[in-house]
Amino acid sequence: MAEIYLDNSATTKVCMAAARKVMELMTMTYGNPSSLHTMGFEAEQELTKARTIVAEKLGVDNKEITFTSGGTEANNLAIFGAVAAKKRWGNKIVTTAIEHPSVLNCMKQLEHDGFEVVYLQPDANGNIVPEQVQRVVDETTILVSIMLVNNEVGSILPVETAAKVIKEKNAPALLHVDAVQAFGKIEVRPRRQGIHLLTVSGHKIYAPKGVGALYIARNVRMQPRMFGGGQEKGMRPGTEAVPLIGGLAEAVLQLSTVYDESKRIQMLYEHCKKQLQALPGVVINSPENGLPYVLNFSTCSVRSETMLHFLAQKGIYVSSGSACTKGKQSHVLTAMGLERTRIQTAIRISFSQETTQQDIDCLVQAVKEGLACIATGKL
User: Fold this and answer.
1) DSSP single-letter state for residue 240
2) Burial (CB count <10 Å: 0-12, 13-18, 19+), residue 196
């Protein structure tokens, strides 16, 4: 049975170049980058090289890149570090109701600590309109945290508008952007976009799990959340995971040009969407103007978990939402105000550089079979 993997927003398959680099750094250049001997110096060189590669992809200086264990740690470091540095200027934080749990759970803790958190609500298509940001940011706002691309429906959020509003209102706020689902798929240039803090994760771009990075603009003062030996300029102390970091950098080097790859993915997305819409009862939950790497749909008749397992038996792997929610009802679709039936029957498929049209055709045929089974009482 052929394997068709369409859950790339949860994690991607590690590319061979990254895997080889990880093995090389584990077995050959395995010194501690803080050691003063030759082996340590060689590891430090690899660390610097990796930092430069990630920085160049973002169009920033390598001194502005801090390596972390992944997107969750980077989001936590950015949010709590920014609030700790800015709290004397105000008490207000602005985010959205459709952020990743690693952002939303930070916000819950900050509310518990006495901060005012404003959650922007999406429309029925998962979009946050610029006017919403304009209305809530003021002179007491110390942090705006908005993801660039939503991980469940693919909506693209108004990050540049947020940067503009912060400047226009002379707010003391820092702008944090979770770019985990955007990095490597669309152009991300934090300096040009007015972003102060930006999160990326390795395992969404064909690098290993357990590694990510946080861009911290050179003029931003942050408070560290961990303390140790001073690695990563004291922002993320602890011996750096050089093999994983090297794998991240190698994966960045292997990324296809954004423009050429996005055209191919867009064609796959449109083909898949058209085929799914032809099935009885199926509705699309992703917005027209979203990132084509993510397509969320509802069967409106078969519960998500049932369809997910039916597809898995055929070697087709999809999800019912964010992997971090472990099967709980989607907070994103709930915030969009979708009816209960759509939420409970939603499926997310997400494409990668390995996805083919044949994969899409097999998926649609399997969904069709699943719908037929429920109609005849076999599912």
Assistant:
1) -
2) buried
324 included as an active-site residue: yes
Mean pLDDT in order along the chain per 10 residues (379 residues): 93 97 96 92 96 98 97 97 96 98 98 98 96 96 98 97 96 98 96 98 97 97 85 85 97 84 94 97 96 97 95 96 68 97 97 96 96 75
Q: Are 74 and 166 in contact (CB under 8 A)?
A: no
Q: How far apart are CA 280 and CA 52, in angstroms?
A: 50
Residue 259: CB partners within 8 Å, gap ≥ 6? none
Q: 210-231 in b/e burial notation, b at 16+ Cβ within 10 A?
A: bbbbbbbbeebebebeeeeeeb
Query: Which candidate in 106, 300, 324, 362 is catalytic?
Result: 324
Nearest Cα residue to 197 out of 221, 168, 164 = 221
Spatial neighbors of 278 by CB under 8 A, at least 6 apart, are none
Beta strand extents in 100-238 (DSSP E only) = 116-120, 141-145, 174-178, 197-201, 212-216
SS3 assignment, position 3: coil
Read off the tokens for 279. 């099935």
Q: State how far the Cα of 288 lies from the Cα of 292, in Å rounded to an integer.
A: 9
Are 212 and 73 spatial neighbours (Cβ–Cβ below 8 Å)? yes
